[in-house]
Design a protein that fits this description.
This protein is mostly helical and about 325 residues long. The chain is built from 12 helices and no strands. The chain has one domain: Glycosyltransferase (Alpha/alpha barrel). Helices cover about 70% and strands about 0% of the residues. Helix 3 packs across helix 4, helix 5 runs antiparallel to helix 6 and helix 11 packs antiparallel against helix 12. This is Tellurite resistance protein TehA-like permease. GO terms for molecular function: monoatomic cation efflux transmembrane transporter activity. InterPro entries: SLAC1/Mae1/Ssu1/TehA (IPR004695), Tellurite_res_ion_channel (IPR052951), Voltage-dep_anion_channel_sf (IPR038665). Pfam families: SLAC1.
């Protein structure tokens, strides 16, 4: 009897931890939000008066990014079946593109601190975003299409490509900028169209996935930032259309976020972090070109709300972790 108990205990010790099978792919919302906060805090004239804000959010974002990558590498090593199941799922796999976007945010945030680190982060982010897009299209083409497979995650690869195109000239990679922007725009339009079709025709999105619709805010915001880089287009009707599209989607998302705050915290809430901050960055850049009280107020208010939202999500995340371990201890 003792021998049987000993064998069972050894098997329990030897077996990989079950929690690795349940680690969600989109765990990179936190570093995206924090790294985005480091950028907007440097751009906004009021938040820039708190220099430690950029430094702290940049360091925390980088640390959590590395932790997330190591977590998924551990999944691949000892829970490969669960990892590969997610990687082959056309609805889930696109969320791996968050890693590429996080590296691009890190590249922009460290550009003035360490050029070599920023260049390396940009190359890593560009590679991950590009390869993930090709892989996403590959697995999608090999599976029978169904609207049930269309999720907000389909917006992540286009965002990655748009961001690559936006940052490429900054890192002396002008030759890939236009290609990335065009590819990102086309794939964004296609993904938004399919997602809207699913929302209208069904099946409805699972409740935990609905907050991720906020990811869409980042698309017109990044397109607007790209347009503002062009002297010929920054004052065009196209730029104004993108501004109001971003403003409308931003206000709607803020309203939705305020509504769901009454519920229990979920990891998907982090989907509001980076997109809303991307909008704040776009508003700030737009305010530097178009002087208007409305635009100025929107830019400052969105930057401040970005700080409040990321701080609130960080506190909620820490509290959720505390509760988890407190429950386990019982």
């Amino acid at each position: 009897m003792e021998s049987v108990n000993s064998t069972n205990n050894q098997e329990k010790v030897a077996s990989p931890p079950d929690w690795l099978t349940r680690v969600p792919v989109p765990i990179f919302g936190a570093p995206l939000g924090l790294l985005g906060l480091s950028l907007v805090s440097a751009m906004n004239e009021y938040l820039a008066k708190i220099p430690m804000l950029k430094t702290i959010s940049l360091i925390l974002g980088a640390v959590i990014l590395i932790t997330g990558i190591l977590t998924h590498m551990t999944r691949w090593a000892i829970r490969r079946d669960a990892f590969m199941r997610d990687l082959r799922n056309v609805a889930i796999a696109p969320f791996f593109g968050q890693i590429g976007i996080a590296f691009l945010l890190l590249a922009e945030g460290t550009r003035e601190l360490n050029g070599q680190v920023a260049q390396t982060a940009f190359l890593a982010g560009s590679a991950v975003s590009s390869l993930l897009t090709f892989y996403w299209l590959f697995i999608g083409s090999r599976q029978k299409f169904a609207l049930s497979g269309v999720t907000p995650g389909w917006l992540v690869p286009p965002i990655g490509l748009l961001y690559v195109g936006l940052l490429a000239p900054v890192f002396n990679m002008d030759m890939i900028s236009s290609t990335a922007l065009i590819a990102g725009s086309i794939s964004a339009i296609g993904s938004i169209g399919l997602l809207c079709t699913r929302l209208i025709m069904g099946p409805s999105l699972p409740s935990p996935a609905k907050p991720a619709l906020a990811i869409a805010v980042a698309i017109p915001a990044l397109m607007l930032l790209a347009i503002l880089e062009s002297n010929a287009l920054r004052a065009s009707i196209f730029a104004n259309t993108l501004f109001f599209t971003t403003a409308f989607s931003y206000i709607v998302s803020i309203g939705v976020f305020a509504k769901i705050m009454n519920g229990k915290f979920a990891l998907s809430w982090w989907a509001f972090g980076m997109p809303l901050i991307a909008a704040a960055i776009a508003f700030t850049a737009f305010s530097h070109i178009h002087t208007s009280l409305f635009i100025s107020v929107l830019a400052n208010a969105s930057a401040f709300l970005g700080l409040v939202i990321v701080t609130g999500l960080s506190i909620s995340s820490l509290d959720a972790v505390r509760q988890h371990f407190a429950y386990k201890a019982k």
